[in-house]
Each structure stands twice: as C-alpha cells, then as structure tokens.
Amino acid sequence: MKKFAVIVAGGSGSRMKTDIPKQFLLLNGKPVLYYTINTFLQAYDDLHIILVLPEEYVAAGQEIVDAFFDYTRLQITVGGRTRFHSVQNGLQLINDESIVFVHDAVRCMVSVDLIKRCYDAAMENGSAIPVIDSKDSVRLITDDTNKALERSTVKQVQTPQTFHSKIILPAYQIDYKDKFTDEATVVEAFGLKVKLVEGEENNFKITRPVDLIIAEHVLPTN
After folding, report:
1. Per CATH, is 2-218 categorized as 3.90.550.10?
2. Global pTM?
C-alpha cells in the first residue's frame, strides 16, 4: 500500500512570542520541522511527504528540504485559511489508493513506533486516531452551568491522524464547518466512525517556550 504523510506547518509564533513560526525555530541546531520530516522518512522507505506551508514560508521550507533530505520524496504546497483548507490542499495532490497520515509539523517528537501502529490500525480499520488519557480534572461548560466530567472518559487527541485514502479523500469534499478542528471531526461529519489508538505522552505540540526546553532534553542531538 502506498503511503503519504501530509505534514501541516501553518502555525504562527504568537504563543512563542516570536516573529518566526514555531516549526522553523531551532532545536539542538536544527529546525523543529526537520525532526518531524525525518521521523516519517525513517518510518517507511516508500513514504512520500506533502509539506503544507504558508505561502510566505515556502522558500524557507524548501531550504530545509534541500539541506537535509532527498527532495524526490517530498513536495511542498501552500496552505489555506484554516487547518481544514490546508489539509484539503495537501490531499489534492494524492491520486493513488494509499494510507494517508495527517500530522502537525510541531509535534516533532512523534516516534516511528507510533507512525507504524497508526498505519497498521488504519489498514485494519480504515482509520487511526492517537489519543492519550487526560491527567487533569475536566469540566463541561454550558451557558448556565458547569459540570465535572469523569476523567477516564476524556481523551486528548494527537496526530498523525491516519486514514485509508478511500475514506479521507471523499470526506474532504464536504463543505467546511467551524467545528472541524481535526481530521477525525471531518470524517465523522462525513458519516463514518473513527478508530482510537494509544498515543504517546512525548508527542506534544511545540506551542510555548517551555515546550522547546522540554524537547531539547528529549530529542536526539544527531
């Protein structure tokens, strides 16, 4: 089965308090984006990456590709006004029956093991959504009240959200809605259920300065 990874790198540096988008910040001397791409390329020799970037950062992304990777396994496309539209733009480059990973570029500590487990689950079930347990107490807020939820029933959702192309490609033909916060919500709106798989604690998004500090101690230095 062919394999594609749509890596979405459309975030800004607002919460980082920097003008540089966080996917281009340096970790141990290399851009955050480098580690994400490298792990996917290591997972499967036949995997092809579609990198989705803001138009003004396409050149910066191309420089990373040229410096570190085999350009024949990567292509770059421009993102859209929302995550949904950015993923949609990436998916438009996929015409083959395949397994498709959609991953946040700033989840740079994703492991080869998680990628492969998502692939296996998607092959068997059509989809694979990595999740982890909530360690905090959580409450549901409504207009007139708030209610404690049973923590064991709440999961934190990660990426790579992984699907058979026969599921995700037609799902992304539906009209955009504000509730589409990830690929799973799109597929569910299309009328299909998704399969949850166990994620990883270290597979968090780089969003704040402290996340960079933590990642520096977790990521390899080579």
Report:
1. yes
2. 0.94
Distant-in-sequence contacts of 112-118, Cβ < 8 A, 24+ apart: 112/39, 112/42, 112/43, 114/160, 114/199, 114/200, 114/203, 115/39, 115/40, 115/43, 115/44, 115/160, 116/43, 117/197, 117/198, 118/160, 118/161, 118/162, 118/197
Q: Give residue-wise pLDDT tens across range 196-218.
A: 999 999 999 999 999 999 999 88
SS3 content of the chain, % helix, strand, coil (to 5): 35, 25, 40
Secondary structure letter of residue 120 according to DSSP: H
Tens digit of each residue's pLDDT (9 = 90 or more) over 163-196: 999 999 999 999 999 999 999 999 999 999 999 9
Per-domain residue ranges of the chain = 2-218
